[in-house]
Design goal:
alpha/beta, Rossmann fold, Cytochrome C3, 2 domains, elongated
């Protein structure tokens, strides 16, 4: 009886040791694949050529490789391995598919996103997704004003650094939204709206178009610090003769754009909603 009890205890101890060793091995495997990352192709939306999306994806991949924080799979290896598993990367548009791609590649994280054009500007959105937890660990957006395809490289490089928490320099015509390093917050303003945020190029209106503060901040005396629009215009409702904030923006911004288009032959946005409002991801 005593021998049997001893054998039983011994078997239990061996079983526990094997279980702990197996769990440690699995944990080590999960930990190790966190050092590997795959950059999936940026999804091009309306009016964005596919070759530009491919070029920006490669730039994003190269910038992440330069940081030496991760081992980054190259495009050829990525596509070969996914094709062997029956997954076409160009058809991968959902988070479930992104996770599946990461699992097939045996990486800890995947980078994915999209590039869209509104008016003469580009909007780039990129996310860093943990394959093991299916959580978005970081995200970054960039707006590039009137950029050529080659000029889009700089904001993409900034996005890579933002995702990895690395300091970077911003240029005058591109802003990475949410950047803690942004020195001059008056360059561009992000106006939130239900049907898509609007990017107000504040610096360009002041420095290039030479528009005086009082033109938009119409209750401000010349030489005084302009009041915020919300100090008078409510987001929720009209107050007496003071119109809602949304209507004020439409009347002031869109009205001015249409006026200069007609009188000066300009091409300021305002004829269609999508010329100003960024289509939100997944909408």
């Amino acid at each position: 009886m005593k021998n049997l009890s001893f054998k039983t205890i011994l078997l239990i101890l061996v079983s526990v040791i094997i279980t702990i060793a197996s769990q440690a091995e699995e944990a080590q495997e999960v930990k190790s694949n966190q050092n590997y990352i795959a950059v999936l192709d940026l999804h091009e939306k309306e009016d964005v050529p596919q070759d530009i999306a491919v070029q920006l994806t490669d730039s994003l991949q190269q910038e992440m490789l330069k940081t030496q924080q991760y081992t980054v799979f190259d495009r050829a290896y990525r596509d070969k391995k996914l094709t062997e598993q029956g997954l076409q990367i160009k058809d991968c548009l959902s988070i479930e598919c992104f996770i599946k791609a990461g699992q097939l590649l045996d990486v800890g994280k995947v980078v994915t996103g999209s590039i869209d054009r509104f008016g003469r500007s580009c909007y780039i959105n990129v996310q860093l997704i943990n394959v093991n937890t299916a959580l978005v660990e970081a995200s970054a957006d960039a707006i590039c004003e009137e950029c050529s395809s080659s000029e889009l490289i700089c904001p993409v490089k900034n996005i890579a650094k933002k995702l990895l928490g690395i300091p970077y320099e911003e240029t005058e015509n591109n802003i990475v939204v949410g950047s803690p390093k942004r020195k001059d917050r008056s360059l561009n303003l992000i106006i939130e709206a239900k049907n898509g945020d609007v990017i107000l190029t504040h610096w360009k209106h002041v420095s290039e178009y030479k528009i005086k503060c009082i033109i938009c901040h119409h209750k401000t005396k010349e030489g005084k610090t302009p009041q915020k629009c919300l100090s008078c215009h409510s987001q929720e409702e009209k107050k007496g003769k003071i119109i809602k904030l949304r209507d004020a923006f439409h009347e002031q911004c869109r009205g001015c754009h249409l006026k200069v288009n007609k009188e000066e032959g300009k091409e300021a946005p305002g004829r269609k909603c999508r010329e100003c409002h960024i289509k939100k991801r997944g909408k």
